[in-house]
Amino acid sequence: MTMKDPMSANSSCTSGSSVPSYLVMALSGLLGGVSMALFVAFLYTGLPSQINLGLNEPTSLYFNTLLCFLFFLQHSLMLRNGFRQWLSGFIPPIYLGALFSIFSGLFLLILMLFWQKSTSIHIEIDGAGYGVMRVLFFISMISFYFTIRSLRSFDPLGIRDISIHLKGKQTRGSIFTVRGTYQWVRHPLYFFSLLMIWANVSLTTDRLLFNGLWTVWIIIGTFLEERDLIASFGDEYRNYQRKVPMLIPYKWFPWANNKQ
């Protein structure tokens, strides 16, 4: 499935707006792109502490929970259509995607830098199981990448709309298309994210906390996104909901087999 932000840029490019536009794109690429790459490594290596605050374990778990909630609040709030419409009253809509990328990258970097590592290990996988979990992680990571590629118009860094604006063109309106892994599950990016989160070979107390909080947040975020998608696409998306599972791909080609 692909969709485009319904708020398109209608204004033409002016030379006076070019410099800040390029600065916003550069900052989005730096904070958004680098933070996403580091987050994959962050998940794979088992959440090592970059800045050790010397907290005892109960306090460090509360602190880690606060870090997660700060990221959840920022990320979920800035994705909601109502907030984006409100923000577009102050900022040209073409910058909304890049601002989301910048702030998400910033909050994610803060989470990774200040995450406090626990020394208590509950589950440690070795032998053949170690290899299975590592392979599952890389399969999920590669699938995540190709799912993004299948969206084509999807712009996680918010750079595309600004670039089109600088060329004096207008962005296209919303479209609804089902392709790639979206034929099996309505939210494959969330599905593969969950696999990467849980495909870990050493489950410490802090890792279990991280996994649990992020799993609950992703599930809640899925329902919130469903609401926004229904508001954007109406019956077309409701028809998609009836045929394709939301988060767990338990049907074989449900979309292809049920298209009318």
Could you provide a short overview of the structure?
About 65% of the residues lie in helices and about 5% in strands. It is mainly alpha-helical and about 260 residues long.
Structural class designation: mainly alpha
Uncertain stretches:
1-16
* Relative helix content: 55-70%
Number of domains: 1
Question: Could you tell me the radius of gyration in angstroms?
Answer: 20 Å
Q: Overall pLDDT, averaged?
A: 86
The largest beta-sheet arranges its strands as 1-2
Total number of helices: 10
Q: How do the helices and strands follow one another from N- to C-terminus?
A: HHHHEHHHEHHH
Give the tally of β-strands.
Answer: 2
Quaternary structure annotation: single chain
Q: Separation of termini?
A: 17 Å
Name the shape in a single word: globular
β content, as a range? under 5%
Sheet with most strands: 2 strands, antiparallel
In words, what does this structure look like?
With 260 residues, the chain is mostly helical. The chain has 10 helices and 2 strands, in the order ααααβαααβααα. The protein has one domain (15-258). The chain has helices at residues 15-45, 57-79, 81-87, 96-114, 128-151, 159-166, 188-198, 205-233, 235-243, 254-258, and strands spanning 121-124, 202-204. A two-stranded antiparallel ribbon has the order 1-2. It is globular, with a radius of gyration of 20 Å. The two termini are 17 Å apart. The model is unreliable at 1-16 (pLDDT under 50).
